[in-house]
Each structure stands twice: as C-alpha cells, then as structure tokens.
Write a structure and sequence with these properties.
By secondary structure, the chain is mostly helical. It has helices spanning about 1-30, 35-60, 65-95, 95-110, 115-140, 150-170, 175-205, 225-235, 245-260.
C-alpha cells in the first residue's frame, strides 16, 4: 500500500503544484477573469484521466486470459517508461517549473479563452494520463482483488491536494528539488517492481519464454500471504519466486536508472530557456496571493 501511496502523493503533488502555480499567477497579475477557463481545462483533464483509468480497468475484463496478460504486460512496461522519463524530467526542471508555466500562461492569455483552456488541460492532462496508467499497472501488480492498493493511491492523491492547498496559501514551505529527488528515487524502486511484473505478464501470455525457469523460490521463508510478504509486495512488488528474466530485468533497470538518477547535476535549466527572474520553484515557498 505504501508504494501506491507514494505514487498518488508524487504524481498528485506534481499536478497540484501546476494548478497552484497557474492560479496564483493569475491572481497576482489581477487576471481573475481567466480563472474560469483555466479551471475548465483542469476539469476536462481530470475527467479524461478518470475515463482513461476506467477504460483500463473495465475495458480489459472481457478479454481472454492471454490477451489480458499481454495487454497488461505491455501497458506496465509503457507506464514504467513514462514514469522514468517523468522522474528525470522533473529532476531537470523542478527548479524552473514556475517560470516555464508562467511563460506558457502569458502566451495563452494573449491568444484568448481557448488557449487558456488548452494550456491548463495540457499542463494537468499529461500528469493525469501518466498517473492513471502507472497507477493501474501498479495496482494490478501489487494487489489484484484487493482494495488496499487503490486506497493507498487515493490517500496519496488526497494528501497531495492538501499539501498543494497549503502551499498556495503560503502555510507550507517545501524544498521541491529535494522532495522530488527522494520521492523520485523511491518511485524508481517501485517502477522496477512494476517492470518485473510486466515481464511476468508477457511470460504468462506466452509472448516471452522462461515462465518455468525460476531464479529462486523462497516462498517457504517469505510466504506471499504472510503479513511481511504482503508488506513487501505492496511496497516493492516483491515476488518470492521470480523467473530468471524477471530478476535480470529488475536488476538491470534498478542498477542503471537509479545510478543515473542519483548522479549529481541534471537540474540545470533546459537549453534555450532564459534564467527566471522569480525565485526558483525548487526553493519552494508558497505562492503569495494578490
């Protein structure tokens, strides 16, 4: 459940901060008239994300077992790719997220209502679709038939909304660069488990071989239905009897991605982006209200 809570918290806080920055900027620049189209874009993005999640959950139930496993494994691997990209993107741009969003919003204000709706929709929608896909894959990996993983995700999102509101009100100060570094590292560990589970799905769908080639089996030591077995599965997507391919993929992903993520640097401003005049978002004090 903790792993899914972390996903909800991390992804939800990114979306909350985007909303916070957009709304605070419009209030500070006395453009409250533009708040309605921004909220409309945010609402459409949320609705699309929920619809996408529902399609993933209910649209696969009529498929054969092999088709479900093939689709589930493929989407799990895609979701890991998206989350990995997002983790590195946030590491690189967290310090300048505020300036980047302000620039896009200034352009949209000059273009009119439709552009405002589109800007808010794109800013939040990308996070929402990535979250829906990764949450679905992670919930599927860590607890099919159980409500605990989904409850963890919802609790994480609720926490993120509260933190975003406190951040907006100026009641909370947070170093976003450090926050995203620590949560990003933990999310890489969660993603490694989702990736391994996706590989197992492809093996069960007979798309990959080696389903019966177990790397080890410690089920007698760590029983899957024991409290600690459930805890390890919920946090790390731990499996006591992984296949050789699963173990190799998990180890390679974790070794390469976590090493690259923890390397210093990579947080400078993107090429071609002017240095912001405003305080960096990575030092993160709550946006003042106008």
């Amino acid at each position: 459940m903790f792993g899914n809570y972390l996903i909800g918290l991390r992804e939800g806080l990114e979306a909350s901060l985007v909303v916070c920055i957009l709304v605070a900027y419009l209030v500070k620049t006395e453009r409250r008239d533009a708040l309605r189209p921004v909220w409309l874009g945010i609402a459409i993005a949320c609705a699309l994300s929920l619809t996408f999640g529902a399609m993933l959950e209910f649209g696969t139930q009529e498929l054969t077992f092999e088709a479900q496993e093939l689709l589930g494994g493929t989407l799990s691997i895609i979701s890991v790719g998206l989350v990995t990209w997002m983790v590195f993107w946030m590491k690189r741009t967290a310090r300048h997220l505020k300036a980047e969003l302000h620039g896009k919003l200034d352009t949209a204000l000059a273009m009119g209502t439709g552009a405002l709706v589109a800007t808010a929709f794109l800013a939040v929608g990308r996070e929402g679709l990535e979250t829906a896909l990764f949450v679905w894959a992670s919930v599927r990996a860590s607890g099919e038939g159980s409500s605990a993983p989904l409850a963890g995700v919802l609790l994480g999102i609720a926490t993120a909304i509260v933190l975003g509101w406190l951040f907006y009100r100026g009641a909370l100060k947070i170093n976003l660069a450090k926050f995203f570094k620590w949560t990003g590292g933990m999310l890489v560990i969660v993603a490694a488990g989702v990736l391994a589970y996706g590989v197992h799905d492809l093996q069960e769908a007979a798309f990959l071989g080696g389903l019966n080639d177990k790397a080890f089996d410690i089920s007698s030591v760590i029983a899957p239905d024991s409290w600690y077995g459930v805890l390890l599965k919920g946090v790390f997507n731990f499996q006591p009897d992984p296949t050789v391919i699963q173990l190799v993929v998990w180890a390679l992903y974790l070794a390469v991605v976590l090493t690259l993520f923890l390397l210093p640097g990579g947080s400078g401003r993107p090429s071609g982006t002017p240095a912001p005049a405003a305080p960096a978002a990575g030092s993160a004090t709550g946006p003042a209200q106008g």
